[in-house]
């Protein structure tokens, strides 16, 4: 019996925003990472469009007039995805998610497996239970906003820029983007920005929303581990060998709990593996789905 908690008091709009990336073939619904709107994955989508029609749902940080403080945990995001599928898709369908998007897809499939034909979870934020328990202690001591390694950086992130070339020059030197090609980095920059009416560009993601996603993640994920043995949707996990969110021991635990699941590791890649190795990720997605036909 699944231990995923029921949903209560949802406030979900009748129309959830999305981007249609077109393509030929079965529907593939994509869920993005925190701070990485769907357009950031254009190099990956270009390699998938010959085999899939790709739709990128927008998570709540990209919705109009949504308040970050209303989000208590990622269960709400999973409910959003379930509603989006029933509104826009023709189940069962293929779901692909990265980071928080992978966890949203996983939670949705544990609740409504009939909606899914297959899932590919790219470097999900699925920590071992020991780390989840430690994070829960930190939260209980009200230290989460101080000790989380990503929150302070998110809250201090620069929001406005004069032109995209300046962003590229600045981001090109950052270690986090070291393994992303120039093509991929420019696609990422186009995906995270929008023009300002007074000139220049502004980041689409607000610092408050990015920090809120970090803070509200992980703490309820013991229930995901407890329910994982019930997952019957054909599922492929893809991780970067240097991932800091889907550790090797977490991947081994996934396979021990549910041997029907698959895990593939891409060498010389980290948490941003779909941006760093779009061709390899696309090949794995395509071959995995073809095996199921």
Descriptive notes:
- The structure is a single chain.
- With 293 residues, this protein is of the alpha/beta class.
- It has one domain (18-292): Rossmann fold (3-Layer(aba) Sandwich), CATH 3.40.50.1820.
- It is built from 13 helices and 10 strands.
- α3 links the parallel β4 and β5 (116-122).
- The two termini are 29 Å apart.
- The relative contact order is 0.17.
- Mean pLDDT is 94; it is low at 6-10.
Topology:
Layout: E1 18-22, E2 27-31, H1 42-48, E3 53-57, H2 75-88, E4 93-98, H3 100-111, E5 116-122, H4 129-140, H5 144-147, H6 151-155, E6 160-161, H7 164-172, H8 182-192, E7 193-195, E8 201-203, H9 207-216, H10 222-227, E9 235-240, H11 248-257, E10 262-266, H12 273-276, H13 278-292
Parallel strand pairs: 2-3, 2-4, 4-5, 5-9, 9-10
Antiparallel strand pairs: 1-3, 6-8, 7-8
Helix pairs in contact: 1-13, 2-3, 7-8
Key phrases:
293 residues; alpha/beta; Rossmann fold; seven-stranded mixed β-sheet; three-stranded antiparallel β-sheet; 13 helices; 10 strands; 41% helix
């Amino acid at each position: 019996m699944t231990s995923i908690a029921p949903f209560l008091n949802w406030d979900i709009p009748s129309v959830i925003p999305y981007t249609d990336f077109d393509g030929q073939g079965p529907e593939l619904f994509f869920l993005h990472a925190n701070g990485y709107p769907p357009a950031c994955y254009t190099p990956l989508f270009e390699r998938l469009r010959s085999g899939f029609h790709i739709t990128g749902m927008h998570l709540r940080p990209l919705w109009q007039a949504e308040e970050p403080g209303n989000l208590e945990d990622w269960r709400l995001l999973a409910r959003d995805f379930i509603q989006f599928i029933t509104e826009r898709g023709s189940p069962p369908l293929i779901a692909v998610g990265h980071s928080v998007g992978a966890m949203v897809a996983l939670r949705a499939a544990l609740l409504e497996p009939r909606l899914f034909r297959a899932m590919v979870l790219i470097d999900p934020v699925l920590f071992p239970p020991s780390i989840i328990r430690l994070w829960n202690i930190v939260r209980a001591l009200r230290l989460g906003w101080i000790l989380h390694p990503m929150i302070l950086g998110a809250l201090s992130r620069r929001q406005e820029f004069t032109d995209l070339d300046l962003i590229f020059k600045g981001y090109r030197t950052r270690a986090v983007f070291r393994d992303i090609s120039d093509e991929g980095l420019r696609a990422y920059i186009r995906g995270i920005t929008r023009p300002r009416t007074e000139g220049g560009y502004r980041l689409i993601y607000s610092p408050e929303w990015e920090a809120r996603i970090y803070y509200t993640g992980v703490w309820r994920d013991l229930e995901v581990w407890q329910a994982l043995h019930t997952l019957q949707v054909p599922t492929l996990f893809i991780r970067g060998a240097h991932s800091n969110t889907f550790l090797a021991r977490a991947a081994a635990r996934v396979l021990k709990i549910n041997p029907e699941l698959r895990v593939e590791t891409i060498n010389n890649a980290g948490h941003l593996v779909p941006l760093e190795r779009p061709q390899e990720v696309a090949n794995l997605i395509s071959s995995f789905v073809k095996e199921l036909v």
